[in-house]
């Protein structure tokens, strides 16, 4: 192997694309896993006889593990080398997937999802670091478009694949499918990734780790417990949130003291990184939080199968597939402050239809709305991440991508928890049915029975009720979803505020070093 500086050409050469293939394969596994599990939640409810709030922990536990391990990835990438660490992450994710398929109880499944998340948490930030170092900052827009491939495949293929596997085989296969992909990715990584050049001189920030990782885990645990309790007054909600927030604040105050902090908040002195991160954070809370509820509407209010719900979600991914490559190219040529607001406007236009949903809303309208939202999403996510990373110096890219990824995970967790709480509280306002209680002794509501009947029609034979009651329950459930979507819609509108501050002038093609010269990232040529 020989080292060669990247050329000034905008095209991604074969060596860069070979490295990108490894990263894309790993990202496909982790992103597919999130979208596949999202349509499996109703199946977990019936399979393990658990509440929605309980099975939602299969998503939450994964995210908690991600948030815990992501802060370590920047330091570990420098210390042990990205190739070695990336392969460890792939192995953890693959082993975790295999164990998930063996779970006999919901508790076991949640525990194995934590192991899966420890691997998955490192895949994306490490992948972004590997690809940015390979291609150089001047091609980061095109690079992000390549990394966007799994982000397109996730929304399109994840729900469809998950629905098909659950309907035709069993829920176990949504995890077993990761095993062959994981083995192929490990072999490919060994062959294609450049040899590591770790930097053992940097010390590890143990004090920072003891504050940040437990702090994030506790805070997100408290937030994620909200859907189950429905109130901040419960000790399991406010106590971990308070302790977690205190640890995170303590970390923020402390992190400016050590020379090599666990999470380098000094990078926020870069204006572009700060504005892009805030824009991304607000957007993720709104869009990802509501995004998990789209399939739930099709499953619970419309009574669709998991496969049908997956197919109904496909237009969103198709829309993103059209605009993401265009947005990646434009991000290298046009300031994103001039393009992202238009993409956000498309999301707003598409999103509005979901604030008006009822039990008979046209699938053509909802499919068209998802397609328009996808067009907007493809022009939003990657350009914002491009803006966040492209002006960083080469040695700061690993820590910069760690910051961006951890903000994404926190935003996604908060969004999912907030939207779940709003939806749960809205549904709880439905009228109870006199004399009808669930196995735990709680009164069954009209909306609760209607949703259960949509998913398991045989219940109506066991519990004969007036058809108008089911109709009222579905109307109430649809209004509950619409109210929740209104909140998300308002948050998307809020994203326009930080987006207005995104750079409207062309940025340097590559970051400058202390002498004012362009930084050139090395690429390994085989």
Structural write-up:
Helix 14 packs parallel to helix 16 (363-378). It is built from 22 helices and 4 strands. It is globular and about 70 Å long. The chain has 3 domains: 13-194, Up-down Bundle (Growth Hormone, Chain: A); 206-262, no CATH class; 263-505, Growth Hormone, Chain: A. The model is unreliable at 1-8 and 509-526 (pLDDT under 50). Helices cover 71% and strands 3% of the residues. The chain is mainly α and 526 residues long. The relative contact order is 0.14. A hairpin with a 5-residue loop joins strand 2 and strand 3 (443-445). It has helices at residues 14-48, 52-55, 57-80, 82-100, 106-135, 140-168, 173-176, 178-192, 206-224, 226-229, 235-254, 271-291, 293-301, 306-331, 340-352, 363-378, 381-390, 397-428, 446-455, 459-462, 467-494, 496-499, and strands at 2-5, 432-437, 443-445, 522-525. A two-stranded antiparallel sheet has the order 1-4. Strands 2-3 form a two-stranded antiparallel sheet. It comes from Micromonospora coriariae. Residues 19-507 form the Major facilitator superfamily (MFS) profile domain. Keywords: Cell membrane, Membrane, Transmembrane, Transmembrane helix, Transport. Pfam families: MFS_1 (PF07690). GO terms for molecular function: transmembrane transporter activity.
